[in-house]
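Supplementary Methods, section 5.1.

A reviewer requested that the exact input to the structure prediction be made available. We therefore reproduce it here, unchanged from the version used in the analyses.
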Amino acid sequence: MKPKSIAATNAKNRFRAFKLAPLIALLMFATVSAQKKDSCVECHSQMEGALSEAVRLSKGDVHDARGLSCVDCHRGDATKDDMAAAMDRRKGFIGKPKPADLPAFCGRCHSNADFIKTFNPGLRVDQEREYSTSVHGKLLKGGDQKVATCVSCHGSHGVRAINDPLSKVFSLNVAETCGSCHANGEYMKSYNIPHDQFDKYKTSVHAKALYDKQDLSAPTCNDCHGNHGAAPPGLASVANVCGQCHVRQASLFKSNPHKTVFALMQVGECIQCHSNHGIMPPNDEMLGVGDQSACTQCHGQGDSGYAAAEKMKARMDEMSASISRSNDILNRAERAGMEVSKAKFELTEAKDALTQARVMVHTFSTDELDKVINPGLDISNKGYNAGGAALAELSFRRKGLAASLFFILFFAALIYLKVREVEKRQALQKQS
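The structure derived from this sequence is encoded token-by-token as follows.
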């Protein structure tokens, strides 16, 4: 091709590109606009009440933060301005899913491991399957539309991560979330189950640790009942549930005769003495035969259990009194300025022994309890003797100081009298 012809061809190409440029730009703009367009948000933002509340709540929630929008759950076509086209069921549009459909509705993503991994590789994908084993899931499958589903606990819009304090399933909010149904007597009426669990839980040692001390490791509803697979622990599994945290107590209980007896009585193991939702802080008064005794619920005067409980309580009281007595005398010695820090430190071993004894109570064996109490008493008595010795030394020092002062004053008086005698003698010599 001649150079003149080449130049002409290039000029034609540049002209064609110039003519296509607006079209290409328009297509790019249309594509970008289509990607960003969300007619769901545009329309619902203009609505009132719950229809616009969904948009407000979804802003910044866990799904929105990961770039998911309305159509990812409700399907349809958010690029269409026409309502019928946007909510076209032929495009899979689902408005408000029925309760029975909710597990599968959420499970469409949350049971899909490949999909979830693209957002959060650590997130579990068995919630839907586990829910089907729960009391809630079984009732839902049986046609009960009132039972809790995913949105009952997590919310429908405005879903937050479980470690978000605003989440309905954050540790501090779980009991209230469960209580929204289970503390509603009218709502629970048809199930014929108690509705005082939440009120009792709020008085418990667990709730005080969680709410008052902000101890997020303290148990709340789902720690004992499970979350997606929520179910009441059966009588045979109560000790296993409590034993998740109270490992030592559960281990000791398994090897003592009460386990067999409680099984025959068809009573919950731990809850027989400690109750379940309104668990109070354990104290020594639960042992023995006093007014607050848990032992006398089953044991009467004259039986071996009653005698054992009485003896164990006496040993615990002896240990507590001994530590208190030793602590008092060491504190008195310390306030008087005596060095007793070593003895006070060693006394902590006796306090540890008392704590251990309170755990060993779950053996319900006086012999096993004595194995902890006796060494503890020896340490406590040693501390008391150390305190007594310190006070005795203090008394000796004070007596020595008093004697020293007496002799000092005595000799000072003698010197004074001698000086006076010398002065008088010198005065008489001057006069003569």
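The chain is about 65% helix and 0% strand. These observations are discussed further in the main text.
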